Amino acid sequence: MKRTQCAGGVVLNKKGLVLLVNQRGTSWSFPKGHIDKGEDPLTAARREIHEESGVTDLKLIKDLGSYERYKSGLEGGDDTSEFKTIHLFLFSTDHEKLQPLDPCNPEARWVDRKKVAGLLTHQKDKEFFRSVVHKI
Q: What single string gives the DSSP state of each residue in 50-75?
């Protein structure tokens, strides 16, 4: 089993809406991805948010911590070939227009925080968001 380090963000806009991205047209998550060689988690988080949503204007609020889970499977459920440690940061932005650059992430949208957990596909993403929502 491959073990990977990933980073991303919970991004809030001026209206308090949360950024979520669609991956491969099959699942919804926070913008995040693998940390490249030589990158620190914060740099990787900023890069991944830009690639998956087009947002570059990010103000760091705080480190939200990390959690672990298996990669999302194409048919839902877990793909046990990869186990991820996901580091998430809380950001704010004045950026409104979403324009994903990564073709594997075809859609990004602003979501009311009360609806975020219901839209997230992976159970561990839902659990993490519920554990930090009071901090945002």
A: HHHH-----EEEEEEEEEEEEEEPTT
Distance separating alpha carbons of residues 128 and 136, to the nearest angstrom:
13
**Mean pLDDT calculated for residue range 3-7:** 97
> 100-113 b/e with 16+ CB inside 10 Å = b?
bebeebeebebbee
Handedness of CA 33, 35, 37, 43 (dihedral sign): positive
- ∠ Cα 124 18 53 (to 5°): 95
What does DSSP say about strands 59-72 and 27-29: parallel, antiparallel, or unpaired?
unpaired
Tell me if residue 111 falls in helix, strand or coil. Answer: strand
Unique residue bearing structure tokens 């947002």: 55
Q: In whole angstroms, what is the distance from residue 2 CA to residue 83 CA?
A: 6
- According to DSSP, residue 4 is labeled E
Q: Is the pLDDT of residue 75 over 70?
A: no
* Predicted structure pTM score: 0.94
